[in-house]
TrEMBL record:
<dbReference type="GO" id="GO:0018788">
    <property type="term" value="F:atrazine chlorohydrolase activity"/>
</dbReference>
<dbReference type="InterPro" id="IPR006680">
    <property type="entry name" value="Amidohydro-rel"/>
</dbReference>
<dbReference type="InterPro" id="IPR050287">
    <property type="entry name" value="MTA/SAH_deaminase"/>
</dbReference>
<dbReference type="InterPro" id="IPR011059">
    <property type="entry name" value="Metal-dep_hydrolase_composite"/>
</dbReference>
<dbReference type="Pfam" id="PF01979">
    <property type="entry name" value="Amidohydro_1"/>
</dbReference>
<dbReference type="InterPro" id="IPR032466">
    <property type="entry name" value="Metal_Hydrolase"/>
</dbReference>
<protein>
    <submittedName>
        <fullName>Hydroxydechloroatrazine ethylaminohydrolase</fullName>
        <ecNumber>3.5.4.43</ecNumber>
        <ecNumber>3.8.1.8</ecNumber>
    </submittedName>
</protein>
<dbReference type="GO" id="GO:0018763">
    <property type="term" value="F:hydroxydechloroatrazine ethylaminohydrolase activity"/>
</dbReference>
<keyword id="KW-0378">Hydrolase</keyword>
<feature type="domain" description="Amidohydrolase-related">
    <location>
        <begin position="59"/>
        <end position="431"/>
    </location>
</feature>
Length: 487
């Protein structure tokens, strides 16, 4: 691997001292960061044979880390997006009954392309809306796509929640085969993914064990009041025990959704609760003060996507590590972490009537070093420090909306978008340069992605919703539910 020197840039390190180096340089060797400092000093001591990239007018930051997103979503955007209820009734059956491994591969290409173009170098990919683990080929196809683009990918699979058994459909030669799978088969499928995909072709691919929620017996998408979330069921305890045993057996981390009421219930299972320093939970809307304290005491981390009333200030004050995530890319949100950070800031400031919450430096931490910590990867990712993986994003700051050249963190967080990312480096390899993704025919990938999206719509019986006229009115009557045709 050829050594590379980035020089002439403003380097925002997010290191322990939170250094910002004007006219800075970063030396990359063997896939790792080997030096960070003043540009003139590193230019003077670096071997002239080292590849040099002139970054004048550019900002070098740690590669962004998206600690929660979804596979499958990139080729189903906007279907059912006008109603959260319709959305879940659309995508979940479609994922379980109308997809093929080819769909997941082409969705993975589109997903990885969008992420890399937004400066994301490591992203979590939950396999579907409810994680689909019955067919390991699905996860392998997705992982292969991310590997071709060159991004770090955390594949998340696990039991898909209640009720059980869960109906699934596999397609072979255009012919559907429907069957039902129980908890044991879903967990076995997830373990097969861990065995096959974890560490796929090097350290770019990881697998986390991901049950749909940490307490399956209560509402899986909304907070539950204390008079509803009253006790753990046998199914709740069985899932926690089996997931804990599998995670320990394979040495993997745990990721799951959680909402108000679940954390308090989960903590009742003192032996197997899906809480702790090896767990990060997404959403966490509607948490009580007691539940915030439980997360802090157990060392559980949280991913927060804009759009829900999670007690982010209270969690931060309690010492909980919180990452801002995209939860993308559907039904109507991009894989752009810079936009997600601004949206999270605006929402929390509005809810608390406090314009000082989540200042720009904190927001940047929540999509870099804190997000890496949430994934258990802060020792190798999330900041520009010697010895860490050379995962970097370079932004072109010589644009009208990013001038004048001062206050770089403010300009980055308040003004920049993923479209300003110029070059992306992952593990010392340039995967995008001057907004051209290396090694992938992007036009062909997008064409094939569009084709497979339409094949999915045909298999799911959703074609008539592509011409839905509902956008024309400020009000809409939802008389006819969206239904997926199950083979």
């Amino acid at each position: 691997m050829t050594a590379t020197l980035l020089h002439g840039a403003t380097v925002v390190t997010v290191d322990r001292e939170r250094r910002i180096i004007d006219d800075g340089a970063v030396l990359i060797d063997g896939g790792l960061i080997s030096a960070v400092g003043a540009g003139h000093a590193l230019l003077a001591v670096t071997d002239p044979s080292v590849r040099r990239i002139d970054c004048r007018g550019k900002l070098v930051i740690p590669g962004l880390v998206d600690a929660h997103g979804h596979a499958g979503h990139s080729l189903i955007k906007t279907l059912g997006c006008d109603s959260p209820t319709f959305w879940m009734r659309t995508v979940t059956p479609a994922y379980f009954h109308a997809t093929t491994p080819e769909y997941w591969y082409h969705d993975g290409l589109v997903s990885a392309l969008e992420r890399v173009r937004a400066g994301v170098t490591c992203g979590v990919s939950v396999m579907g809306s409810r994680p689909r683990s019955d067919d390991p080929e699905i996860s392998l196809a997705h992982a292969r796509a991310y590997r071709e683009v060159g991004l770090r990918d955390v594949v998340c699979v696990g039991p898909a929640g209640l009720p059980l058994p869960h109906a699934v459909t596999q397609w072979s030669g255009g012919v559907p085969r429907r069957r039902e799978v129980g908890f044991d088969e879903l967990l076995s499928g997830a373990e097969s993914v861990i065995e096959t995909v974890n560490g796929y072709e090097g350290d770019l691919t990881s697998v986390f064990l991901t049950p749909f929620t940490i307490v399956p017996s209560v509402d899986p998408s909304h907070p539950s009041r204390p008079d509803v979330a009253t006790h753990l069921t046998d199914d709740d305890r069985y899932q926690a025990r089996r997931v804990r045993e599998a995670a320990e057996r394979w040495g993997v981390r745990i990721h799951s959704d959680a909402f108000g009421g679940m954390v308090r219930l989960a903590a009742k299972d003192r032996e197997h609760a899906l809480l702790g320093p090896d767990v990060h939970l997404q959403h966490c809307t509607g948490l009580s003060a007691e539940e915030v304290a439980i997360l802090a005491e157990t060392g559980t981390s949280v991913g927060h996507a804009p759009g829900g009333r999670a007690p982010v200030p209270q969690m931060l004050q309690a010492g909980i590590t919180v990452a801002i995530t995209t939860d993308g890319s559907s039904p109507r949100r991009p894989f752009d972490l810079l936009q997600a950070a601004r949206a999270a800031q605006a929402a929390n400031q509005l809810l608390a009537d406090d314009p000082y919450l989540l200042p720009p430096g904190r927001l940047l931490e929540m999509i870099t070093i804190d997000a890496a910590a949430v994934l258990g990867m802060a020792d190798v990712l999330g900041s520009i420090e010697v010895g860490k993986r050379a995962d970097l994003a370079i932004l072109d700051m010589r644009k009208p909306h990013l001038v004048p050249n001062w206050m770089p963190v403010h300009r980055l967080v308040y003004e920049a978008t993923g479209a300003d990312v110029h070059t992306v480096i992952v593990g010392g390899t340039v995967v995008m340069e001057d907004r051209v993704v290396c090694g992938v025919d992007e036009a062909a990938a997008l064409d094939e992605g569009d084709r497979h999206a339409r094949l999915l719509v045909e298999r799911a019986g959703l074609a008539h919703h592509l011409t839905d006229p509902g956008w024309r009115s400020n009000r809409r009557e939802f008389d006819e539910p969206i239904e997926v045709t199950v083979p």
